[in-house]
Design a protein that fits this description.
The chain is an alpha+beta fold. It has five helices and five strands; from the N terminus they run βααβββαβαα. Helix content is 52%, strand content 16%.
Length: 225
C-alpha cells in the first residue's frame, strides 16, 4: 500500500486551532489522561500560552497534513548549543504524530522540514529534545543519526529550595557526629600514649632499682678489689 501524500505547513493563525488540538492530544497521551478531564478553562489557558509561544521570533511550528487533515506537528526553536558556541542551532522541542498516522512517514517529513529550515538559517547543528522514557522516539532519532549529548534533569524551583534548606539543616547534626567521632578517636590515642609513657617509667624504675641493688652488694668475691 503506497504511503499517503504528506504536506508540511507552517502554523498560521488560521491553523492555530488545529495545532492546539494536536498539542492537547500529545499532552493527554503523555500523561495518560482523557479528553473529558480537560476543563474548558484549561483549554483556554493552553490556547493563550500557545499563541504567546508562536508569536516569538525564535519559535516556529509546522503541521503535517494528510488529505487536509492535520496528523502531526513539530515545534522548532533557535538557540546555541551552549553559551560558549556562537553558531546557531535549531532545536526540535516537540514532535508528535497521531496514533493512526504513525509509520506513514509523517514524522520523517516533519524532521526533513526541520532540516530544511535549519539549512536556510545557516544552522550547523540540529538538536532534539526527547523524553528519557520515549523508547520509540529515541530509536527514531538514533536511526536518523542523532547521538546523545546531555541529560537534562528538571525540578521545580520551590522543590529545589526546600531540598537545599533541608540539607542545610541536617549539616549541623552531621558535623556534631563527626566532631564526636574525632574527639573519641583523639581520646583513645591519648590514652594509648599515656599507657605507653607509664609503662616506660615503670621499666626505667625497674632498671634503676636493679642497678642500685648490684651497687649495694659490692664487688663480687675474687674480683681483687
Amino acid at each position: 500500500m503506497p504511503r499517503p501524500l504528506i504536506s508540511i505547513r507552517r502554523v498560521t493563525p488560521e491553523l492555530k486551532g488545529d495545532f492546539t488540538a494536536l498539542c492537547t492530544a500529545a499532552h493527554l497521551e503523555a500523561s495518560g489522561d482523557s479528553a473529558a478531564r480537560v476543563s474548558p478553562e484549561t483549554r483556554v489557558a493552553s490556547e493563550e500560552r500557545i499563541a504567546v509561544a508562536l508569536a516569538r521570533d525564535d519559535v516556529r511550528a509546522l503541521l503535517a497534513v494528510v488529505d487536509d487533515r492535520p496528523v502531526g506537528y513539530v515545534v522548532l526553536s533557535q538557540r546555541p548549543m551552549s553559551f560558549l558556541i556562537d553558531s546557531p542551532c535549531v532545536s526540535i522541542e516537540q514532535i508528535y504524530v497521531v496514533e493512526d498516522a504513525r509509520r506513514s512517514g509523517a514524522a520523517r517529513a516533519l524532521v526533513n522540514a526541520a532540516a530544511q529550515y535549519a539549512d536556510r538559517l545557516g544552522a550547523e547543528q540540529i538538536a532534539s529534545t526527547v523524553p528519557a522514557q520515549g523508547r520509540e522516539a529515541n530509536r527514531f532519532f538514533a536511526r536518523l543519526g542523532f547521538t546523545s549529548y546531555v541529560v537534562r534533569r528538571v525540578t521545580t524551583t520551590s522543590a529545589l529550595l526546600r531540598r537545599l534548606a533541608a540539607d542545610e539543616q541536617s549539616h549541623p547534626a552531621v558535623a556534631l557526629v563527626l566532631l564526636r567521632r574525632r574527639w573519641l578517636r583523639a581520646q583513645a590515642n591519648r590514652a594509648t600514649t599515656v599507657d605507653q609513657l607509664l609503662l616506660r617509667r615503670r621499666s626505667l624504675r625497674a632498671r634503676v632499682a636493679r642497678s642500685d641493688a648490684v651497687s649495694y652488694l659490692g664487688p663480687a668475691p675474687g674480683s681483687g678489689m
